[in-house]
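Sharing a chain and its predicted structure for anyone who wants a worked example. Both blocks are below, sequence first, tokens second.
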Amino acid sequence: MAQKKKTCARVLSQERLADGVFDLRLQTDLAKEARCGQFVGVYPEDKSALLPRPISICEANAQEETLRLVYRVVGKGTAEFSGLKEGDTVEVLGILGNGFPVEKARPGMRAVLMGGGIGVPPILQLAKELDCEKTIVVGYRDGQCFLKEDFEKYGETIIATEDGSVGTKGNVMDALKEGGIEPDILYACGPMPMLKAIRSYAMEKGILAYISLEERMACGVGACLGCVCKTAAVDHHSHVHNARICTDGPVFEAREVEI
């Protein structure tokens, strides 16, 4: 794994994709190390906020050295980021976490990629990197289906909305069942109730599943133990049934964690 570093990134562009959801593009050599499912820590200028805000990588272009971060405004730090414009600079820590194991989806297999809410963006880079048949199932609250056109470039894309305004009325599991989709392998990122449902479905069907746990993180580097989850196996170092989402994850095989 590459050494994590703090660097200064230049803002190439930023646009609003939906209510409270922004698309930030950065120029940084961190992009050369980025893989799907990983994240970066972005530092606010406000020095009263000592810790970086973890934001998942939506897309990474190693050749052009660019990162695309699609995030939702949820507090002071991300509200500050939403004001960034072309030419600004921002401090970024990366690359952080362990990503999705794309090698597990072999040619001939059907991979189903599932994203919900702000867990939708990291699914895009995964769709780009997977070299097999893939179906993308993404869920939104309403008809503001950000990134829909991007997903459609990389595979069959199925939409679920809570209000029924687009696609299946309900959640991603409703859309999966309505479409009669039978995956060989599952990859997912989203809120905990969604991941619990996917984990139960995968274990019942005997399907290999990898889930990215969305969790509030503080340091992002495993020092504060603020994002611990329960695991099925005992950690070799701490000898307890725990793992740090920011360093041991955020992606885990579904059977490895108890959620």
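Comments welcome. Residues 192-205 form the longest helix (14 residues).
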